[in-house]
UniProtKB/TrEMBL annotation:
InterPro entries: GH, GH13_cat_dom, O16G_dom_2. This is Alpha-amylase family glycosyl hydrolase. Residues 31-427 form the Glycosyl hydrolase family 13 catalytic domain. Residues 1-21, 396-425 are annotated as: Disordered. It comes from Streptomyces mooreae. Belongs to the glycosyl hydrolase 13 family. PANTHER family: ALPHA-AMYLASE FAMILY MEMBER, NEUTRAL AND BASIC AMINO ACID TRANSPORT PROTEIN RBAT. Residues 396-408 have a biased composition (Low complexity). Residues 9-18 have a biased composition (Pro residues). GO terms for molecular function: hydrolase activity. Keywords: Hydrolase.
Length: 557
């Protein structure tokens, strides 16, 4: 059995007492990287009309909402995360009218839409920064060290490589934790707070259902901007508190935004949400971002970074659930996004592992995020020519190449699992435009080419090629999302571990058992119930079932 249902699904049951009222608590949300999803005008770059035309595909896939990466006016120094005008659509992607029509069409299909907001920094082309006097009020400028101020104010490093400071023609320095074209805002200035609240209201008025907050852990810096004392600082993100990330002061900002979101939604009969992209050193610190008076969700990067080993996965799942339960929030699971190596490649280059990891994720309590193309089993593209790359970290000297190719690091990761970090300058590999149909590039992406070259062997991975094939990864995702929607035991709610041999995970949800074999070989277990869905062909022989290596199976119990 692959993913065919072998018996009728269990009858729907009333939601359990732990299921909260918010739609986000068990939503499956699909990330669209706008420039790589679908191109409507032939310029080789995805756009809002392209997304709008493909909304029925997302509806049929079975997701509940869509998250759009930035499409605002931008010089595109960092793929749109350098925003020059937060209330204007960049002509690359369309018009404000296109954005409004996309939102309306999505809502007509029953899909909610979350848009990105980028509050840690703007573009250096933003009107605030191009005005020298205004810039020094609303961004972080400091005098340099040394006799003539020729040294940076401290030893902080850019996430993209090199120093986090750039000197101006006035002799002072401005902070940019990312590219020099992305100056950090001064969140001690109340005008910055007021502006971002106004930006949120603008997009809510247009119909957005919430915001994914970029670098939600970064707006507040430690008093005095103290030195860290050593290099390779980007490698510490998510493992310890740093003076420029995960400072306690960010939580006052998120509490103010929660008041705004709740007040706006209550006044209009809508539920609008905030989602934190927050790298925190522990699940307990991450849970602070989703306390009842802060944001609704926070990406669980500890799960994304976990090794494909039963003990490691169980430890991360336990700690994540305990931390979010302590504040009454759902856990938010994710395996891939536009900043990390695709999990098909990251998990040892194994499509079998990637499929199993997805079924595991979708069986866990809480919400889940999918990244465009993972439903097709797309691998990381590791052989892009240097001349086509656009990741700013690539040009800042932070490049590394592991044995598994650019963007991977198998030597430092356990069990041959590639590093999840994409900040080494190879993030373009997960951003290659989607293949929709046909045998050759651009595979239906648009009437022209594609801004990054697509591999010549992706013909069998297109949406058209996989549709209707019961063994395909696309049909596995469709089946899993359909079951998740129909079975009330999945999504938010209770979970209990069940006994299992070494290398195997087993847990129950109301009416469902999930078994995960993380080993590279088959394991025989007593038949636990009726198979609902499996990531690989499953053999059931009376009282015994043979779980394939690197597989996940859902059972009706």
């Amino acid at each position: 059995m692959t993913q065919e249902l072998t018996s009728p699904s269990p009858a729907p049951q009333p939601p359990g007492p732990g299921r909260g009222p918010g739609w986000w608590r068990d939503a499956v949300i699909y990330q669209v990287y706008v420039r790589s999803f679908a191109d409507s005008d032939g310029d080789g770059i995805g756009d809002l009309r392209g997304i709008r035309e493909r909304l029925p595909y997302l509806k049929d896939l079975g997701v509940d909402a869509v998250w759009l990466t930035p499409f605002y006016a931008s010089p595109q120094a960092d793929g749109g995360y350098d925003v020059a005008d937060y209330r204007t659509v960049d002509p690359l992607f369309g018009t404000l009218q296109d954005a409004g029509e996309l939102l309306r069409d999505a809502h007509d299909l029953g899909l909610r839409v979350i848009v990105d907001i980028v509050p840690n920094h703007t573009s250096d082309r933003h009107p605030w920064f191009t005005d020298p006097e205004l810039a020094r009020q609303r961004y972080l400028f400091r005098p340099g060290k040394g006799e003539g101020g020729e040294l940076p104010p401290n030893d902080w490093e850019s996430i993209f490589g090199g120093p986090a400071w750039t000197r101006t023609d006035r002799g002072d320095w401005y902070l940019h934790l990312f590219a020099p074209e992305q100056p950090d805002l001064n969140w001690e200035n109340p005008e910055v707070h007021a502006e971002f609240e106004a930006i949120m209201r603008f997009w809510l008025d247009l119909g957005a259902d919430g915001f994914r907050v970029d670098v939600a852990h970064g707006m507040i810096k430690a008093p005095g901007l103290p030195d860290i004392g050593h290099g390779a600082q980007a490698q510490l993100i998510g493992s310890q508190v740093l003076p420029f990330f995960d400072q306690d002061g960010v939580h006052a900002i998120h509490r103010a935004w929660r008041r705004l979101l709740d007040g706006y939604g209550d006044a209009r009969g809508r539920q609008v949400i905030g989602v934190a992209e927050a790298w925190a050193p522990t699940p307990e610190r991450l849970a602070l971002y989703v306390r009842p008076d802060e944001l609704h969700q926070a990406f669980n990067f500890q799960f994304l970074n976990a090794a494909w080993q039963s003990d490691a996965l169980r430890a991360v799942i336990d700690s994540s659930l305990a931390a979010t339960a302590s504040v009454g929030a759902p856990t938010t699971w994710v395996l891939s996004n536009h900043d990390v190596v695709r999990h098909t490649t990251r998990l040892g280059g194994s499509l079998a592992r990637a499929r199993a990891a997805t079924l595991l994720m979708l069986a866990l309590p809480g919400s889940a995020y999918l990244y465009q193309g993972e439903e097709l089993g797309l691998p990381e593209v590791t052989d892009l020519p240097d001349e086509v790359r656009q990741d700013p970290a690539f040009f800042r000297g932070g490049r590394t190449t592991g044995a598994a190719g650019p963007g991977t690091d198998t030597e430092s990761a356990p069990d041959g699992v590639a590093s999840a970090s994409g900040q080494d300058g190879f993030r373009d590999g997960c951003r290659v435009p989607l293949p929709w149909s046909g045998e050759a590039p651009p595979y239906g992406f648009g009437p022209g080419g594609s801004w990054l070259p697509q591999p010549a062997d992706w013909g069998g991975l297109t949406v058209a090629a996989q549709t209707g094939d019961p063994a395909s990864t696309l049909e596995l995702y469709r089946a899993a999302l359909g079951l998740r929607r129909r079975l009330p035991g999945l999504g938010d709610g209770a979970m209990s571990w069940a006994p299992a041999p070494d290398g195997v995970l087993a847990f129950t949800r109301p009416g469902v058992l999930c078994t995960v074999n993380t080993l590279g070989h088959d394991v025989e277990l007593p038949t636990a119930g009726t198979p609902l869905l499996s990531s690989a062909p499953l053999t059931v022989d009376g009282a015994a079932a043979r779980l394939p290596g690197d597989s996940c199976t859902w059972w009706a119990i």
